[in-house]
Amino acid sequence: MTTVQAERATPPEGPGRPPAAAWRRTVTAPARQLAAVADALRTAPRRPLLLAGALALVSLLAYALVRHAVGTSMVDMIVYRAEGEAVANGHDLYALRVTQWNLPATYPPFAAMLFVPTTWFGIPFLRVAITAGNLLLLATLAHLSFKLVGWPRRDLRPIGVLLVTGLGVWLEPVFTNLRYGQINLALACLILWDLTRPDSARSKGLAIGIAAGIKLTPGLFAVYLLITGRVRAALVAGATFVGTFLIGALLLPDATQGFWTKYLYDSSRVGSTVIVDNQSLRGLIARLMHTPDPGLPATVLGALVAVAGLAVAVWAHRSARWSPRADAWSVCTALVTAVLISPISWTHHWVWCVPVLVLLAAEAAHERSRPAAVRRLRWRVIFALTLLGFLSFAMWIVPHKGELDLTLPWYSQFPAGVYPLLGLCFLAVAALRVRSRRRAAGAPLVRVPAPRSGVDGLGSTGPQKAPAAR
Length: 470
Hints:
Blueprint: H1 3-9, H2 20-25, H3 29-43, H4 46-70, H5 75-89, H6 109-114, H7 123-149, H8 157-167, H9 172-180, H10 184-195, H11 206-214, H12 220-227, H13 231-251, H14 253-261, H15 281-289, H16 295-317, H17 326-341, H18 353-368, H19 378-391, H20 394-397, H21 413-416, H22 418-441
């Protein structure tokens, strides 16, 4: 919005009119968000915006046809609805079994309480509503990813959001989220929204705490906030998580006791570690060892990757003064580490491919903008290979019916574990990038003070500038 537009939008102060600040407070948050979206669409280049919208629409129509052809049971949505019914009717939450696969409830009681509103509607309506909601969440995740990376320039971001929303449905993690009616896009938006908020925000960490209360693994991001110096945000996340536990304990005491003393530790309720659906490091090792329980080797590797991944995330965070997009690399490294080290990371948990791909696209665009004499192909190659991996559906091509997951030959191991292998490569690339940027700037490789929290929400002291030597 221009200065003139802002002046016209603000009512003059005077007798009978509230002060400008008070007037702005009367506008609801949803209205402000809609106004911001409308303003962004007005400022975007018209022709590219229309072309992106047309391409997105064609892609979504094609997706609808494919979805109808392959069938979408939205089985996880049915489980969530059954959990909400159990809470609403006072039934035993963790005794339920639904669908032909006899799926149980696996989330904390707090999550089941949030699913109660799904019981107000029939399943046919929910299929449409949850699909539409997930597409809106995909658009939100795209917006937050662009904000995290700081690319492209603001007037082009609506075009990027349209393209990611329309074409992103073909990314296997997103496709599977939509097919199953999963909640991972909602959790991703909660986490990334919190991580891109100003560090000065007193409630920063609240959304991460809520996400951890729904599904425990987002708790790792409270640790990430802590080790990168955002202590208050980490404490807010922890306190919020405790609050979700107390709500569950107060309203569903028996279910809370059962979950935290018994069902949380019953891995058979979640699923088999060895199947190709599981794209965690533990699943990769289980298939390599041809065993359903990889035991100590997988535990040791997971611990090493956790330490290394978080160390690289902190290292990147502390390199913001010398390196553009350093904080985006820090956040994406933490995101990838989280899905790598989780014992079970189904393919649809890898929706973090969206911010990762946006970050790599930004690096590729910067590389392409350099003079031809010093231009290289590395980032464009890395982006293309990563995009291909998430578009490939490779794990589903591998024969895996019945017990075949336990006997995969060596040449099937790469497509069967494509996501953890891509994740490990991403961590290595992140570490090499931090190292090269520090060297190019003549900065020490390790010993530097952490940057003070700024107003950009990513912990930097201000606009990130590339070193002159790069």
